[in-house]
Design brief:
Largest sheet: 4 strands, mixed
Oligomer: single chain
Structural class: alpha+beta
Strand content: 5-15%
Length: about 400
């Protein structure tokens, strides 16, 4: 396993770190002057920073140069994401376009489709969402019922997607739809690129427990999708969906692993500043110190898993079930971390997650704690991840 990076990669890290340490405070100050102090979860703030990064040439890090990318090796892509997380920059709103769809199009789309769609992603001009989950086919994606029927020069798309992140601001959606209702479950599914402005597309935001509405329901009602929106072969969409999932696993956890380590340190500081009824720092509690130590171990193990996945990818290996172990470990450990934080906050946590409250630091802890309830559901539930590990790694029988 590759534990760490080469001297050349570390030199690259220093140049990236210098860029972030110069550009991010400058951008943050300009935003504050024009709009007030930024909220790390505000979509306008996140989009503006993502636009700035793209304009500076940091989009398409692993894309071929012929499509405007930088063709950086995986190690340097990882370093870039680590440094962006380290500086505290917000996650972008077009991570689905940059990290999932872009690589999928490069591998599977026609040249005409690449020329049409990749420039908009690279410039952060076109925001994409992912039309996979349905009310009756979330964890069991192969049970989807959205249909795309070929009608002359177009497909007639009908169906209902749910938990679609950023659909309310997206320009396009890549949709899995059934094009052959007589085929086996994983067959008869196609991968379509759908313009969200087409007649018959309707988006209904879903209010979350945090007060935000980043998830959405999307309804397709007799939407006329041109035939050239099909990527790959008709009825061959499952292979593309699995490839897209592997691209997602390749970048998804790098900033989250870095952020997790920062949150463990922040939790220690919160405990040190919090006193019990006798006036003693909570950090002196042996039970709490044990729990924080366990989270520190989780943080270290997640970093080791990240290095293991990177090593495997550098050797040309395909993504495997190990990604499920990382996702499961991170999501459940993150829930534990934020639960501890709210327990330390006590009654102060009742102020809620609104960033307009009197104590922004408490609001941020509460918002993140509420958000973690979704983390064992999104990107594959914990139950699904355990099934994958049981069947593919432990070779246990199904059922």
């Amino acid at each position: 396993m590759q534990a760490g990076y080469s001297a050349e990669d570390e030199a690259f890290r220093l140049s990236v770190r210098d860029w972030f340490e110069t550009e991010y405070p400058r951008f943050q100050a300009a935003w504050t002057q024009d709009h007030g102090e930024p909220d790390s979860n505000d979509l306008a703030w996140r989009r503006a920073w993502e636009d700035h990064v793209s304009r500076a040439g940091w989009a398409g890090l692993g894309w071929p140069e012929q499509y405007g990318g930088r063709n950086l090796p995986l190690t340097r892509q990882a370093i870039f994401h680590e440094e962006q997380a380290r500086i505290g920059a917000p996650l972008g709103v077009n991570i689905i376009g940059h990290g999932i769809l872009g690589p999928t199009l490069i591998h599977f789309a026609s040249e005409a489709q690449k020329q049409r769609f990749l420039p908009g992603i690279l410039a952060n001009r076109d925001i994409w969402c992912q039309g996979y989950s349905e009310p009756g086919a979330g964890s069991d994606l192969a049970a989807l019922t959205t249909r795309a029927e070929r009608r002359g020069d177009h497909y007639r798309l009908n169906g209902h997607k749910i938990w679609t992140s950023f659909a309310h601001i997206a320009d396009y959606c890549f949709v899995l739809a059934r094009t052959d209702t007589t085929a086996q479950r994983h067959k008869g599914i196609s991968f379509l690129l759908v313009d969200m402005k087409l007649p018959g597309v309707r988006v209904a935001p879903i209010r979350q427990i945090t007060g935000e509405a980043d998830f959405n329901e999307v309804f397709f009602e007799d939407v006329k999708v041109p035939l050239d929106a099909l990527v790959g072969e008709e009825n061959g969409g499952w292979r593309l969906a699995m490839a897209a999932a592997s691209f997602e696993r390749g970048t998804y956890f790098i900033p989250r692993q870095v952020r997790f380590a920062q949150e463990v340190e922040a939790l220690k500081q919160l405990a040190a500043k919090t006193q019990d009824d006798s006036g003693t720092s909570m950090l002196d509690s042996p039970h709490l110190r044990r729990d924080i130590a366990r989270l520190a171990v989780d943080s270290h193990v997640l970093q080791l898993k990240s290095w293991r996945a990177l090593t495997h990818a550098l050797r040309g290996g395909p993504p495997g079930p190990e990604g499920s172990a990382t996702k499961l470990h991170w999501s459940e450990s993150h829930q534990t971390l934020l639960t501890l934080a709210t327990e330390l906050l006590g009654e102060r946590a009742l102020a809620g997650p609104s960033p307009q409250g009197t104590d922004k630091a408490v609001a941020a802890w509460v918002r993140d704690a509420l958000w973690t309830r979704a983390e064992t559901i999104l990107a594959g539930t914990s139950e699904v991840q355990r099934n994958i590990l049981a069947e593919q790694m432990l070779k246990l029988p199904k059922g």
